[in-house]
Amino acid sequence: MRNFDIIVVGGGHAGIEASIAATQMGCSVGLVTMDKNAIGRMSCNPAIGGSAKGHLVHEVDALGGFMGVIADKTGIQFRILNKSKGPAVWAGRCQSDRKLYSQEAVHLTSSFSNLEVIEDSILGILEENKSVTGVKTQSGKEFKCKAIIICSGTFLNGLMHTGLSSEKGGRFGEKPATGLTESLINMGFISGRLKTGTPPRLKKDSINWEILEKQNGDENPKPFSLRTDKNQFPFLPQISCYITYTDRVVHSILEKGFDKSPMFTGLIEGVGPRYCPSIEDKIVRFSEKERHQLFLEPEGLDSDQIYLNGFSTSLPAEIQAEAIQKIKGLENVEMVRAGYAVEYDYFPPYQVDLSLETKLITGLYFAGQINGTSGYEEAAGQGIVAGINAALKIQKRPEFILKRSESYIGVLIDDLVSKSTKEPYRMFTSRAEHRLLLRQDNVDRRLLKYGYEFGLISKELYNEMKERESFISIGKELLSQTKILPNQINQLLESKNLSEIENAETIDKLAKRPGLSLKEILILVDQKESMVYNNLIDKNELLEQLEVEIKYEGYIKRQEDLVIKTEKLEEMLIPLNFNYNNLKTISTEGREKLSKIRPHSIGQATRISGVTPSDISVLLVYLKS
Amino acid sequence: MNFEDDIIVALATPAGIGAISVIRVSGTGSISAVGKIFNGKHDLLRCSTHTIHYGKIFDENKEMIDDVLISIFKKPNSYTGEESVEISTHGSSLIVQKIIQTLLKENIRLAEPGEFTKRAFLNGRIDLAQAEAVADLINSRTEASFRGARNQLDGLLSKKVEGLRNKLVTASSLIELELDFAEEDLEFVSKNEVIKLIDEIIFEIDQLLETYKFGKILRDGVNVAIVGKPNVGKSSLLNYILKESRAIVSHIPGTTRDVIREEVSIDGVLFRLFDTAGIRNSYDEIEKEGVSRSQQAVKDADIVIFLNDITEKFSMDLYNKLLQLTTKDRILIVLNKIDLNFTETFSGDIKISALSGAGISELFNLLKEKAASNNSYSEKTAIISSVRHYDALLNARKQLKNARRSIENKMSGEFISTDLRSAEDSLGEIIGIVSSDDILNSIFAKFCIGK
After folding, report:
1. pLDDT for A25 beyond 90
2. Tell me: the pLDDT tens digits for A261-277?
3. pLDDT tens, A358-387?
4. Helix, strand, or coil here: B267?
5. Please, which residues 542-571 of chain A have a Cβ atom closer than 8 Å to chain B?
6. What pLDDT score was predicted for residue A249?
7. CB–CB of A420/A366 below 8 Å?
8. How many other β-carbons are positioned within 10 Å of the β-carbon of residue B350?
9. Which of B331, B322, B373, B326 is nearest to B350 (CA)?
10. Cα–Cα distances in Å, from A344 out to A33, A154, A169, A272?
11. Range 18-57 of A in CB contact (< 8 A) with B
């Protein structure tokens, strides 16, 4: 019988991060996947990042994960979204070459000596006294291990629907994983069913590109990863996406297929995501809308397939084919593969702790879609946290829990555990109450220390961040001391229709004015002798970060105060075995929810719906026993 | 910032009328904050812990509110384990309200229910046995507030605030939509729309804030000062109303040196009656004190019954003095002693006899009308009656103004949203809802999202 420290089940975005983090922390890892070449395969759209998801990629990167590295290497279009908004919501997004992304992931996972990729499927978990001891596989093998991380994606009892016909499988052309759900249920876990969908794939040559609206990438693309060599980036030639729209004619064709829709006929039981509805859902729920926007996204540089983003559907294939030909630019389109919906098992995430270890079985971790999330980035964020925690547990070190106030990953996991999702959970910036503090520009200052602590980030990278950190604090100090005289700046102010100054003012104060950039002011500083000028002027990226912190200081300060205010409650830990039945004086609903979710801290308890402020007060006074 | 730096205040004794009321202030800087509104023999900051000091408390306009006893507790020897002050005032919810309102302006906030106990616990001041007892207490308080919440007033208020909060969620979702769904094919509403929505909410909050005075009357009652020259029958009137003799009725002027206070309920509205000693000048030390108290009673009164002897001349002097202390619309001119022979030389609002009781029921009707006349609220109006709600609404209003300013300064949505969310939290405090999911739910319900 083979022996591993950790078995990772599934080679998707969560599985990749979990296994690499754990092996780098010194654990022997067996990564079990049904298909060695399917590691890192993108089931849905060929893109990484986006609003809030881009933040997650940066965070995974700062912790020492690899999603950003792979995305940078295989990206064929890079854009920063929300550039016209404030810095907290700027978000990177890239189109990826689907094939290359997976190849890169396969290559990466094969390059660690203590990480073995095993082609097999897990049938069951072996445990003794509520503690994992190993796994049993489809091919009849057993592996001994100290921890198991399940990253099963959409594969647990996966069922794909197109029209009224359904087929077992987790992804097009791939078998489902059976047996594992049942094994977990036998151990006492509760499962649920979710649904997600994909759009049809189109043949590239059959599209009339000339008449379509083009969407280019940024002129100066920025990589996700701190480890990406900026001189080589971007690594691949860059492409464009295209935009088109449905119309009433398309809608009416689709409506013909509603009686054969697995969604509307009740064939699909799983709950789908509201933020990513199928096209038939959009037509029904927003019937007043004349058209819906669609994106034509290339699947790769040498791929002849196009992903029709926005047209996810499970209607019968012939209806799909008929409808898309009425879309502008797709008059003669050839549908390579029909869209389908996939249903899969998940385990409502109140069953895991903030470390992603299950509450029921010691050493068993869940990460990714099994916890009810959707999206590669959400999966990767959980994967790395689960990988780190499994390794820490084996090494008998304290668990690693990210705070809501320091990361989106912290928000993600806390939301999952405290609120337990009923639809596929996607990250949005609005989910983070401390959004102004969780920016892409300060991700290194927020999280690199953890990656470094766990040996996932090099000393060199860490020191560079320390330098940037001190640059910013020294810069702030300098700018608050250096004054600009009226005669130095009034001309500039006048030209911008801003009110002129009467007395000398410090640079940081001036930089707070809307419409005035830090760089513009710095140029006015007496250049020859000025330490300020020499220190700051040519460091563009750092200057940008400095400017953000100065310009929005008031707002940032308010959020920081809020964090400090709530911190005390976050730090008041509740023992995992706390018996809520002892609390005679709290509400029934409060007791029920608290017993089920078993919050980690008082702060977390306050976020559970149904737990009242007076329940919290009672809990507080009882806790110190 | 530590939570201790957040100074909290609340009434520590049961609400309502007792001989004294105790206001508790806790947190680092409590002593200096109370010191700012207190005037006594000693500088509070220099006093040692567990000492008691007599002095006066003034409001922000330097007007005296009450004379009080201040107890000083230095860290860690207090109930909460923090620097604390306890203010013992005369037992009047009016005085308590005023002092708390004044303290709120000193960067102190109202304590949440159970917050003193929470701090005591957090600071390790109470052990489990004590904690259990307090926990029961907190619970019983919850039950009481639960019962309270069932009454019609609170029900209306919750509904109203929930409506406001829903509007605010809509405003937030319009802002968030642009942030999280910029890539979608959506028509984003102009910021003017959001401003319009914000202004609507502010307008409604202002209306609610205005009801506070009336709400207070419903809860605390109407203060009525009875003023008149000696021997016009003030005490007789009071006695008649009370149907029991407690104030000293006497023909010797000035015997009612102190302000006598009684409470009666007339058709469900509580009237608090102050029989004053008169507000004329006096050189007698004791009487001087009585006069000053009377003046205060007039200032605090919602209605002043200006009692005149119909058999004598109208006391123009006194009337003029009253006008310096209160406004004309608050004064009710009542002509007494119609049981005697008189020739009417001047007119008033009503004629009565405090001896026979003639005209008294008409007087009651007038009082009721007058109490409500400034604010014409029907039973269908939501009314603010608690300082906590008032404070939360003020906070929400402030945040909404901030949000408006952020929009005007062309700040990006995430900054506007920070302000809107604070406002939402403040409103949520009133009805006990805190949830950021509402915004996303609102977005998904109203907009077709799905790239």
Report:
1. yes
2. 998 888 888 888 888 88
3. 999 999 999 999 999 999 999 999 999 999
4. coil
5. 552, 555, 558-559, 561, 564-565, 568
6. 96
7. no
8. 17
9. B331
10. 17, 5, 9, 11
11. 50-52
Tell me where in chain B the CATH 1.20.120.430 domain(s) lie. Answer: 151-217+382-446
Q: Is the pLDDT of residue A284 over 80?
A: yes
State how far the alpha carbon of A374 is from the alpha carbons of A59, A66, A305, A430, in Å: 17, 19, 23, 17
Average pLDDT over residues A509-537: 78
Q: Which residue has the higher pLDDT, A506 or A515?
A: A506
From A318-332, A404-418, B206-220, the region with the lowest mean pLDDT: B206-220
Domain with CATH 3.30.1360.120 in chain B: 3-149
Confidence band of B363 (pLDDT split at 50, 70, 90):
confident
Decide: B182 and A51 in contact? Cβ < 8 Å: yes
Q: Where in chain B is the domain with CATH 3.40.50.300?
A: 220-373
pTM of the model: 0.77
A506 pLDDT above the threshold of 60: yes
Amino acid at A547: E
How many residue pairs bridge chain A and chain B with CB atoms within 8 Å of each other? Answer: 150
**Which residues from B are below 8 Å from A430, CB to CB?**
176, 179-180, 417, 436, 439-440
Answer whether B450 sits within 8 Å of A275, measured CB to CB. yes
Q: Averaged over B199-225, what is the pLDDT?
A: 80
Contacts of B439 in chain A (CB under 8 A): 430
Q: Which DSSP state fits A386?
A: H
SS3 of chain A: helix, strand, coil, percent, to 5? 40, 20, 40
CATH of B220-373, one of 3.40.50.300, 3.90.650.10, 3.40.309.10, 3.30.360.10: 3.40.50.300
> Distance (Å, rounded) from C-alpha B387 to C-alpha B429?
13
Domains observed in chain A: 2-195+344-453 (3.50.50.60), 201-339 (2.40.30.260), 459-555 (1.10.10.1800), 572-623 (1.10.150.570)
Residue B201 has pLDDT above 50, yes or no: yes
Q: Left, alpha or beta for A232 (phi > 0: left; psi -120 to 50: alpha)?
A: alpha
- Class of domain B3-149 (CATH, top level): alpha beta
Fold of B151-217+382-446: Four Helix Bundle (Hemerythrin (Met), subunit A) (1.20.120)
Residue of A589, A621, A623, A624 to mutate for B, most B C-beta atoms under 10 A: A621
- Spell out which residues of chain A touch residue B131, defining contact as CB-CB under 8 Å: 621-622, 624
Which of B179, B412, B451 is nearest residue A295 as measured by Cβ atoms? B451
On whether any CB of chain B is under 8 Å from the CB of A625, the answer is yes
Express as a percent the part of chain A with pLDDT over 90. Answer: 68
